[in-house]
From TrEMBL:
Species name: Cohnella nanjingensis
Keyword presence, DNA-binding: yes
Name used for this protein in its record: Helix-turn-helix transcriptional regulator
Keywords: DNA-binding, Transcription, Transcription regulation
PROSITE patterns hit by this protein: HTH_HXLR
Length: 110
């Protein structure tokens, strides 16, 4: 995660820090959609890619790795040939679902 310059936020505005942390974790064009899609069930890489159809393989891999680094998703690799990889939400990732649903409701008002 990128470090934030403390000089950007004076001490009196430190209550904004949790918002900035959350924003940094969710920054990425596809992350909210991926989290929402994984909420329904465990998914394979190819299913996620098909759901997002405009995403490149490299971009999807990057987004998934970042979410794994932030403990939002679990990646399970089956010891098979060819390899099979599945992704699911962690409890931390699942805790974002009500927020994502509220964002979707807000979007309907626009």
């Amino acid at each position: 995660m990128a470090k934030m310059c403390e000089c950007l936020f004076p001490k009196k505005q430190e209550e904004v820090w949790p918002l900035i942390v959350t924003q940094n974790v969710l920054t990425g064009r596809w992350k909210l959609a991926i989290l929402w899609f994984l909420n329904r069930e465990t998914r394979r890489f190819s299913e996620i890619k098909s759901f997002l159809n405009d995403i490149s393989q490299g971009s999807l891999t990057k987004q998934l790795r970042e979410m794994e680094d932030h403990a939002l998703i679990l990646r399970f690799v089956y010891p098979e040939v060819p390899p099979r990889v599945e992704y699911s939400l962690t409890s931390r990732g699942r805790s974002l679902i009500p927020i994502i649903e509220l964002m979707a409701e807000w979007g309907k008002l626009s």
